[in-house]
Design brief:
With about 350 residues, this protein is of the alpha/beta class. It has 14 helices and 12 strands. It binds alpha-D-glucopyranuronic acid (GCU).
């Protein structure tokens, strides 16, 4: 309720600003650039967007003012994508997982066990020949991806059941992101998928509507899930990037010189987020272990991977246009095979 109220107030403020002030403050003729995301202000993504805000201020402060709205202040990721589509806001961060409803091309990065290692994942995401056909595939839908953000490796965690093998997921209700692939993945693994928005997960865990969820380590600390869930199991099922998307009309309407600066800013977001991410994962794991008393489990990942593998073929059959991208990813997988695993 409180959250709904907050969102309505913010939206009302924004509508008034658009009605009475255009998108810019008349006196100063400064264009306000709004960016929404669903993480806290401690999160690497927020820090990276603040670096972007500072960069634009330094380079183009007379013409633009970037405002960053964290913590679902502008609604859930699904809401924010819609606001970005229509131009009510200019940018938002969305998980790749929810973008496959806007373009089937995004399905590829939702596949479980797609990448052999973190190195392979990073090289793929940095390779524009791989990402451009995906990032540009939503142009007709009104938005384009401008860069990607690391969201680590997704693993299962539960209130009180250690997950050592897929059999342990049987009968458990696990929250997944709202993507058909995640629902299929849970079916293959034997658990019961409960799709819901990120902001609802903590209460659902606490009130035992679900038995667990799956995410990176930061969900334990930054979102408090480790206060309720005491088992985190490194089955390593997905590396799903977050994507910074922007409204097409805004991006295309930028004068060339400004566009070049914005593009430098997007690269800065990627760089800062990546550096902050590596530090945050380490800190989160330590905090979860020492302060929240979460038990970390290191199961054999092979049975999980074997169970999920049919999904690869299925998706490629349904969407053959993804085959070239899939093959390019396999080349990186060969070059950067899995190393020692998680410590
Ligand atoms: C991660 C990811 C978010 C996503 C969330 C989720 O935190 O960075 O973009 O919304 O997982 O599970 O929904």
């Amino acid at each position: 309720m409180k959250h709904c109220k907050k969102v309505s107030i913010l939206l009302a403020v924004m509508i008034l600003a658009v009605l009475f002030g255009g998108c810019s403050s008349k006196e100063e003729n400064i264009r306000i650039v709004r960016i929404g995301h669903n993480q806290s202000m401690n999160h690497p993504t927020h820090k990276a967007l603040v670096a972007f805000q500072d960069y634009i201020h330094e380079k183009l402060g007379d013409s633009y003012k970037v405002e960053v709205y964290p913590s679902e202040l502008l609604g859930s990721q699904n809401n924010m994508v819609q606001l970005t589509q229509t131009g009510a806001i200019d940018f938002c961060v969305a998980s790749n997982a929810i973008l496959d409803t806007f373009s089937k091309n995004y399905e590829i990065f939702n596949l479980p066990y797609l990448f052999s290692s973190e190195e392979s994942y990073h090289h793929v995401m940095d390779d524009k020949t791989v990402t451009d056909p995906i990032f540009e595939s939503t142009k007709k839908a009104g938005f384009t991806a401008v860069t990607w953000l690391d969201a680590g490796t997704r693993n299962f965690y539960t209130v009180d059941t250690p997950i050592e093998s897929p059999e342990d997921l049987k009968g458990l209700k696990i929250r997944v992101q709202q993507s058909p692939i995640n629902i299929q993945m849970m079916q293959l693994l034997g658990g019961s998928a409960t799709p819901m928005g990120f902001g609802e997960v903590y209460t659902a865990l606490q009130s035992k509507i679900i038995d667990g969820a799956e995410n990176n380590e930061l969900a334990l600390t930054d979102n408090g899930h480790g206060d309720v869930c005491k088992y985190y199991s490194y089955d390593m099922h997905q590396m799903v990037p977050d994507i910074l998307i922007g409204n097409n009309a805004f991006i295309e309407g930028l004068p060339e010189e400004d566009k070049a600066i914005f593009e430098e800013g997007f690269q800065l977001v990627n760089q800062v987020q990546r550096e902050e991410w590596a530090k945050s994962v380490k800190e989160s794991k330590e905090k979860a272990e020492k302060e929240q008393h979460v038990n970390f489990i290191y199961p054999d990942t092979k049975p999980f991977e074997e169970a999920c593998k049919p999904l690869h073929e299925e998706i490629l059959k349904e969407n053959p246009a993804l085959q070239d991208i899939y093959d390019a990813i396999q080349k990186y997988n060969e070059e950067y095979p899995s190393v020692a695993g998680v410590e």
